[in-house]
């Protein structure tokens, strides 16, 4: 039997699609181990995978603190969460039985599982959840594309983007936050090197082709399968949601994202938006700052709601721009106002705007005064929008998990 080893860190939005892949492969008869942080141990074990710890819950919380989620902080999440997981992941892959047929599937770059697979010649597949992680010298992602002067000649731009990518890489890994990580890699005799392309046998992109037009310098082994659309049903939350909208009507849904706990600004301005428009609002996720909703008659906070159920019943969604929420909003056919913080979120916001599915406001400008005119315009235009139902129908037909597993099986070692 082939042993498939998954490696994934991040938030639930990152982990859930990987668990769905693992579950499907278990059903197809494979033995699956899943390397991740203790924070996800219960949900991973419940899927039938062998859970292997590569980090503590304390590391998860430190890497996803309010400070770590500041838009200008790209070090804490790496230093306190991802970097400590390198060695335990590397050691697990290194000590796989020599006579065992194995396949490593990783989410993210420069992790211990992928490095060990490369060093010890174990077949390796890379999962990519959002297009901003695919470099192209011919198409910069947001927010970088917003900063490029319009008068830069097109023939020079590829050179600038390639150089920017390498300089950014070198600067990040020379910083003090990466010192321990770099020392660990040196000790394990797998020093980090800048690579133009991944050495994975196969790369699977979890988004459709229309969401990110393929560029001529994309990896030849990259296959796009569509949005995975993972959803964890919660019957109690659904009842609470239905009771709320039965009394107050279709709401605007506000969410901070699964990794963000600080929600004061969103709750404060979101409440003002709802009261000005006289529209109910449901705030999902982060619980630090929900005191801003105290005494509100139109607004309620919920710990969790599965968006596959809730979004089709909503007027619109205001969210952080994570790829999971973005995909569910497209599927629901509702307009979305994105308040992007970092990582893939600005790029997703930019794509949603260009596709005619919504718009965005940067966090420092997110106020009721700025949001209300855009919301009014979106809600008015949604009734006659051709883009919303067109892309919703395409996403509803997604078979991303099945297609990805078919690709994985075709890549398995013989």
From TrEMBL:
It holds the Pfam family Glyco_transf_28. One of its GO terms (molecular function) is hexosyltransferase activity. Residues 4-59 form the Glycosyltransferase family 28 N-terminal domain. GO terms for biological process: carbohydrate metabolic process; vancomycin biosynthetic process. Residues 304-381 form the Erythromycin biosynthesis protein CIII-like C-terminal domain. It comes from the Bacteria. This is Rhamnosyltransferase subunit B.
């Amino acid at each position: 039997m082939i042993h498939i080893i998954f490696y994934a860190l991040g938030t639930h939005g990152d982990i859930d699609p990987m668990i769905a892949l693992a579950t499907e492969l278990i059903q197809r008869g494979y033995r699956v181990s899943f390397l991740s942080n203790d924070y996800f141990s219960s949900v991973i074990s419940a899927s039938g995978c062998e859970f292997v710890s590569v980090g503590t819950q304390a590391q998860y919380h430190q890497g996803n603190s309010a400070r770590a989620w500041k838009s200008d902080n790209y070090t804490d999440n790496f230093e306190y969460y991802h970097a400590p997981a390198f060695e335990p992941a590397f050691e697990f892959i290194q000590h796989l039985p020599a006579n065992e047929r194995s396949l490593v599937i990783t989410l993210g770059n420069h992790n211990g599982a992928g490095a060990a697979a490369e060093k010890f010649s174990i077949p390796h597949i890379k999962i990519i959840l959002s297009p901003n992680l695919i470099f192209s010298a011919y198409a910069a992602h947001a927010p970088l594309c917003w900063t490029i002067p319009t008068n830069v000649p097109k023939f020079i731009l590829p050179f600038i983007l390639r150089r920017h990518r390498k300089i950014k890489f070198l600067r990040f890994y020379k910083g003090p936050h990466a010192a321990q990580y770099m020392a660990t890699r040196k000790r394990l005799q797998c020093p980090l090197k800048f690579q133009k392309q991944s050495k994975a046998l196969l790369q699977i992109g979890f988004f459709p082709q229309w969401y990110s037009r393929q560029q001529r310098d994309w990896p030849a082994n990259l296959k796009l399968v569509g949005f995975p659309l993972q959803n964890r049903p919660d019957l109690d939350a659904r009842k609470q949601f239905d009771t709320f909208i039965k009394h107050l009507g279709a709401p605007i849904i506000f969410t901070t994202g699964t990794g963000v706990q600080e929600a004061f600004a969103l709750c404060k301005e979101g409440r003002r938006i709802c009261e000005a428009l006289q529209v109910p609002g449901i705030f999902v996720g982060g619980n630090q700052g929900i005191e801003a909703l105290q005494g509100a008659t139109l607004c309620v906070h919920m710990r969790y709601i599965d968006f596959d159920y809730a979004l089709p019943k909503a007027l619109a969604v205001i969210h952080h721009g994570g790829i999971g929420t973005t995909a569910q909003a497209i599927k629901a056919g509702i307009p979305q106002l994105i308040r992007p913080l970092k990582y893939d979120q600005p790029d997703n916001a930019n794509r949603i705007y260009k596709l005619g599915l919504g718009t965005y406001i940067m966090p420092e400008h997110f106020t009721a005064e700025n949001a209300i005119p855009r919301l009014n315009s979106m809600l008015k235009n949604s009734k006659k929008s051709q883009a919303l139902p067109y892309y919703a129908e395409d996403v509803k037909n997604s078979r991303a998990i099945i297609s990805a597993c078919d690709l994985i099986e075709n890549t398995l070692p013989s």
